[in-house]
Amino acid sequence: MRLVTVGTCILAAGFAASLFTVGLSPAGTESSVWSGKAAAAYLDGRIEWWAKWPAAARDHGTFCVSCHTVAPYALGRPALRTVLHENGPSPQEIRVVENARTRVRGWNEVEPLYSDEKRGVPKTQESRGTESILNALILTGYDAPAGRLSPGARLAFDNMWALQLKSGSARGAWSWLEFHNSPWEGDSQYYGATLAAIAVGSTPRAYQSAPEIQDNLKLLRDYLQRERGSQVLINQVMLLWAGTKMPGLLTTAQQESIVQDALSRQQADGGFSLSSFVGAWKRHDGTALETRSDGYATGLVCFVLQEAGIRREQARLQRGLAWLQLNQEKADGRWLAYSLNKQQDLNSDAGRLMSDAATAYAVLALVRAE
Length: 370
Known about the structure:
There is one protein chain. With 370 residues, the protein is an all-alpha fold. It has helices at residues 8-12, 36-52, 70-76, 80-84, 91-105, 116-119, 123-143, 151-162, 189-201, 205-208, 214-226, 233-245, 252-263, 295-307, 315-326, 353-369; strands at 57-58, 62-63. It has a two-stranded antiparallel sheet. Helix 7 runs antiparallel to helix 8 and helix 14 (295-307) crosses helix 15.
């Protein structure tokens, strides 16, 4: 169910008509204050680095299908094609898709992203569950514009469904990598399940209604509903997105509750800080969480609100989009985001990982608004 109407009290309470707003200009125009070209260069460059980085290398000539760099790239980079007047995927996009296809086709031969032998039990199981979802998400995303499900994407779903947990307290979800690193690898099993829902919700209706996956879908829906109330807000924002892909996953009241909670975290500058969406999470090094508005929280929230049917003209959403327009880094085209786990040098390769995801979601939000 898509939330197409929201009461004015939800979106504009406490905001006067004189609020600061910025009209949105297409990224390819002279009046634009953000650059699609710069964003694409940043994202493509980061994939080039990641694919060649020794620590990301995996067997069969593949690289790790990461939550912070590869998966957001696959979601966000295609959105720039219209802005940049591109006729098809960039070479880096093709590389990401081929990487996923290689690992899907060789699923029984490729080594897990992290193995029990090298990282301890249960890393093999966690890696397989995590990767099965990310592969399905990536390949389905590239099939969606054509309204089809390619053999590779179908095989990715076969791998994914085979690993869905059928019993226990997490039945309906998947084993998910746990490295005690929020927001993607620390108590993130629910996050992974929302990605699975987004992936399957992006497939053609014929696949979603296929008899052989109905039990799997029921398990997934039941899990997402059963565990919803215990989730930190950033996972509930992901659930809101999943609900736009899977009709009936959320009631209108549940959607409105997530929208209100997310908007209540908006900062004075119009942006959002991830630190206010993760509950009591604390950094490992004892330093305080960064409270400044960041590109990841602002991009994700503004994108998902639009997916849920909130019009860009609504005051709070417009302020969030204005923050994104005004806060792209001029030097390299990224949007900054900050580690929840330790203080990082934002200009180091590791320090840019959060900005990789932030830039992808900022692009999604801004292109969606044009």
